[in-house]
């Protein structure tokens, strides 16, 4: 087989044992069996438009009811067509993770952009940031005085000040400053000539397990409030208090938070269903894959390997994807172009040549592996939408 293998939890008989609680197992076993078109070349991504639109409308309605602005993160879908659907439903703008994603959106006329990332504006990125700032309404994340000075230098010749927001570490310990250091970064940014409009965070520690979602959401709300108070005391007008995480978005959408930036909710995925953030019938995107081998007893092999499903697997989840039509099966190993599916004794197995739907663990990196999305309704393909920002990690 091609490439290196990644193992799975005890359900597939490997030495690494993932602990999956009963509630999580129950949710995952209820994943809806999607209807999908026949005759598509595999592997490919299929999006059910009915489910997609329902997800977009549901999150928008929740935020509207609470008076919270919704600024969805496009890193999940990287699609201009889907971003436009979100904006048409009422989104206040979009969030991006890179200048490359921002440029793709701006090229398509989507210009209210929050780059929720501490961009280091040096070399070519400085020129690109200045050009983006000149043609779009941009907010950029900062978490250091040095980063702020770099942004200011990049846009020094611009007619307007660049808006920035200070990132707060609310518990993931990835990027962001502590709430009591926020004012210092904001003052440095103001002194450099930037317009500080508020604070933001990402409750990424809510992905650890279903039990951690509410704790992470509370951390977001509390620490954003503390940071905003520090900025207010330092003389800043704080107009943006932004939280962002699909597992915690609904839970953290309370005052003083006034904006949410979830991304995965548009499709949901196996991880989100396992966490209890998404419902088992709310998964809008599946990977269609063909059984290409059944030569080894107790398993079948799909044509969607690591270069399709990726090797993303949280410690609490077994396998590298789920087959809703075969809930007892486990995607136990992935190689570059092979996915090995373990079939427990006495349970149904897909036949050689059968096309199956796979719900990926983490949909965001999976989408980035493909040039297009096949979209349809009721199992009938209607259109193909490009993954416009594919590969734009720059």
List the helices and strands and how they pair.
Layout: H1 22-29, E1 44-48, H2 49-66, E2 69-70, H3 80-89, E3 94-96, H4 99-107, E4 112-118, H5 124-135, E5 137-142, H6 145-154, E6 163-168, H7 182-191, E7 195-201, H8 213-233, E8 240-243, H9 249-252, E9 259-260, H10 270-275, E10 285-293, E11 299-302, H11 306-309, E12 330-334, E13 339-342, E14 355-358, H12 363-367, E15 372-377, E16 380-386
Parallel strand pairs: 1-15, 2-9, 3-4, 4-5, 5-6, 6-7, 7-8, 8-9
Antiparallel strand pairs: 1-10, 10-11, 10-14, 11-13, 12-13, 15-16
Helix pairs in contact: 4-5, 5-6, 6-7
The low-confidence runs, each spanning 5 or more residues with pLDDT under 50, are: 1-17
CATH class of the largest domain: Alpha Beta
SS content category: alpha/beta
Summarize the helix and strand pattern as letters: HEHEHEHEHEHEHEHEHEHEEHEEEHEE
Mean pLDDT: 94
Shape: elongated
Please provide the count of β strands: 16
Overview of this protein structure:
The structure is a single chain. The two termini are 32 Å apart. This protein has helices at residues 22-29, 49-66, 80-89, 99-107, 124-135, 145-154, 182-191, 213-233, 249-252, 270-275, 306-309, 363-367; strands at 44-48, 69-70, 94-96, 112-118, 137-142, 163-168, 195-201, 240-243, 259-260, 285-293, 299-302, 330-334, 339-342, 355-358, 372-377, 380-386. Strands 1, 10, 11, 12, 13, 14, 15 and 16 form an eight-stranded mixed sheet that branches. Strands 2-9-8-7-6-5-4-3 form an eight-stranded parallel sheet. It folds into two domains: 10-48 and 271-386, Beta Barrel (Lyase, Ornithine Decarboxylase, Chain A, domain 1); 49-267, Alanine racemase (TIM Barrel), CATH 3.20.20.10. Helix 4 runs parallel beside helix 5 (124-135) and helix 5 (124-135) crosses helix 6 (145-154). It is elongated. It has twelve helices and 16 strands. The protein is an alpha/beta fold and 394 residues long. Strand 8 (240-243), helix 9 and strand 9 form a beta-alpha-beta unit. The chain is 30% helix and 21% strand.
């Amino acid at each position: 087989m091609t490439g290196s293998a990644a193992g799975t939890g005890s359900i597939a008989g490997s030495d690494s044992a993932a602990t999956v609680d009963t509630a999580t197992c129950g949710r995952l076993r209820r994943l809806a069996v999607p209807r999908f078109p026949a005759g598509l070349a595999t592997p490919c991504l299929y999006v059910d438009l009915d489910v997609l639109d329902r997800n977009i409308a549901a999150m928008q309605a929740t935020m509207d009811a609470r008076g919270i602005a919704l600024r969805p993160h496009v890193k999940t879908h990287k699609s201009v067509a889907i971003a436009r659907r979100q904006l048409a439903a009422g989104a206040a703008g979009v969030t991006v993770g890179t200048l490359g994603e921002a440029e793709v959106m701006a090229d398509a006329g989507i210009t209210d952009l929050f780059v929720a990332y501490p961009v280091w504006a040096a070399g070519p990125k400085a020129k690109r940031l200045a050009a983006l700032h000149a043609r779009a309404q941009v907010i950029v994340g900062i978490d250091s005085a040095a980063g702020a000075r770099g942004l200011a230098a990049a846009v020094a010749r611009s007619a307007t000040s660049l808006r920035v927001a200070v990132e707060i570490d609310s518990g993931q310990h990835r990027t962001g400053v502590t709430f009591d250091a926020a004012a210092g970064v904001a003052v440095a940014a103001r002194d450099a000539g930037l317009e500080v409009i508020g604070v933001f965070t990402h409750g990424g520690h809510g992905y650890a397990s279903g039990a951690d979602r509410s704790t992470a959401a509370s951390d977001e709300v509390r620490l954003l409030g503390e940071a905003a108070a520090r900025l207010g005391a330092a003389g800043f007008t704080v107009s943006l208090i932004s939280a962002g995480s699909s597992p915690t978005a609904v839970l953290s959408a309370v005052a003083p938070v006034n904006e949410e930036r979830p991304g995965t909710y548009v499709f949901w995925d196996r991880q989100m269903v396992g966490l209890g953030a998404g419902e088992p019938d709310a998964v809008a995107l599946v990977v269609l894959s063909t059984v290409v081998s059944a030569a080894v007893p107790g398993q079948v092999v799909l044509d969607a390997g690591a270069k399709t499903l990726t090797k993303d697997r949280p410690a609490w989840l077994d396998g590298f994807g789920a087959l809703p039509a075969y809930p007892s099966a486990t995607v136990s190993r992935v190689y570059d172009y092979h996915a090995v599916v373990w079939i427990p004794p006495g349970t149904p197995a897909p036949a050689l040549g059968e096309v199956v739907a796979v719900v990926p663990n983490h949909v965001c990196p999976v989408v980035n592996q493909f040039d297009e999305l096949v979209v349809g309704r009721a199992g009938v393909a209607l259109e193909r939408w490009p993954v416009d920002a594919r590969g734009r990690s720059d």
